[in-house]
UniProtKB/TrEMBL annotation:
The chain crosses the membrane at residues 6-24. NCBIfam families: ccoS. Residues 44-60 have a biased composition (Basic and acidic residues). This is Cbb3-type cytochrome oxidase assembly protein CcoS. The keyword Lipid metabolism does not apply.
Length: 86
């Protein structure tokens, strides 16, 4: 009987701690988006890391790649700056 008198208060304290932790996690947004992380891994956001020879969406012949387009726009901007200064 003495063990019951010890275990009941311990159990009540553990339940109170559990409820407090659950309340804290709900207030901090831990349960806001349960499906987002599961769907996020399905998005293909690493196209720029795929080597050109392994791509399945290769640009057509004569069509510039995104890297070449960026280089052209960088050199075009530099040329415009020089003409405006001089």
């Amino acid at each position: 009987m003495q063990i019951v008198m010890f275990l009941v208060p311990v159990m009540l304290i553990l339940v109170a701690v559990g409820v407090a932790l659950f309340t804290w996690s709900v207030k901090n947004g831990q349960y806001d988006d349960l499906e987002g992380p599961a769907h996020r891994i399905l998005y293909d956001d690493d196209k720029d890391m795929i080597p050109d020879d392994a791509r399945t969406d290769k640009p057509a012949a004569g069509e510039p790649t995104p890297e070449q387009t960026a280089e052209v726009s960088d050199t075009a901007d530099t040329g415009e700056d020089k003409s405006q200064k001089g």
